[in-house]
């Protein structure tokens, strides 16, 4: 493995006054110290699971274009008819419980940034999959490799993101069949946090894993998780061959597939929330179980992306009450199964970082946290229903994630926090502003938001009357300006570049 990365400098505050700020000491990942919210009583939880079992027994799931997956299910005792697979009640649950890890570590090339996934651990990762990007200076445009690298660099610089993510935006200036190489390399070169690989074809998944074998060593990769693959079902109730083969590629290499039903209620699933939850549970269970048939004990994450839609326009909606209830219920189902959970994060349909984006993002992230999600994808940058990765939105979301770090850390009740010394020093009717206890704790007592403006109106006006997105504009630019690549051994860098060049030279450009 490479040498540990040097610590990164923290970019300066973009505020209208200067002051000394202590260095941020953010953890590699979070430990939840507050309880999750239990929406359902045991009988309600059992009813949802029973509905999922009934769907799998009566309707089943199709595996299109993957004969090996069908054969794995046939050998496991499922009923296979053509591409349709039906399951006896309890069969899929049994496969999951037999060998699925409850927690696992995803190793980073700098061990200080390795993360635990599952249990009470919480990992934040940037948004994923947007073909467009947006910033105030250049507007909405197709993403490029430069944009991709920018978001990787900003995720590396942010103390509140634990993970580099995967397809943080689509670099459409690179051929489709080659861009995965540049994307994985960018994660390896410009960051030392954990990352995700390609899933758009099984051979691209294999390339992603092979690059990890170069970086970490083949033996290490065979025994440890170093990369994730985000696998979407083709809801309702279909795994297409591209996704199931990519899933099996990751599992066979002992790497973690993140199995995610993608359901918009009323389109890819029932319009009723309970029915959509049961469908999502059924699809996720089948994907998780398939990883265990491919390689028992392979790490895997039970995922969920369930949202509502406007029944007037057909457009997806976010931050609504129905998906919030679904996240809470799905969180309980994942905990009951004993598997790590992935949910979406700061989701919005807004086109820019405005009040709608703030409300919808907060109301999407909150139920994911309270539902017990362990891996939160789309935690920063998401705009326009996932079509756009926003620079200003990324900065604002990261600031919000810092607040969530403090919240999930729970309430500390040690002697210093109980503040008896302050009560002894400050007489009744006096203030605590200058007492010794306040002076000893003022730098860390409260979360100090980078982008919130708490000045008086006159101070705000005299500093230029800057709204939140303009303050965020300065913040993301400061992040990029402060970035420096974490150390990567030259021999490993050369080996990665050589692998990429040989792969690219072996194929003609394909743009679709």
TrEMBL record:
Its EC number is 2.1.1.-. GO terms for biological process: methanogenesis; methylation. Residues 1-23 are annotated as: Disordered. The keyword NAD does not apply. InterPro entries: MttB-like_sf, MTTB_MeTrfase. GO terms for molecular function: methyltransferase activity. Residues 1-13 have a biased composition (Polar residues). Coiled coil: none annotated. Keywords: Methyltransferase, Transferase. Transmembrane segments: none annotated. It holds the Pfam family MTTB. It is an enzyme of class 2 (transferase). Belongs to the trimethylamine methyltransferase family. This is Methyltransferase. It comes from Dongia mobilis.
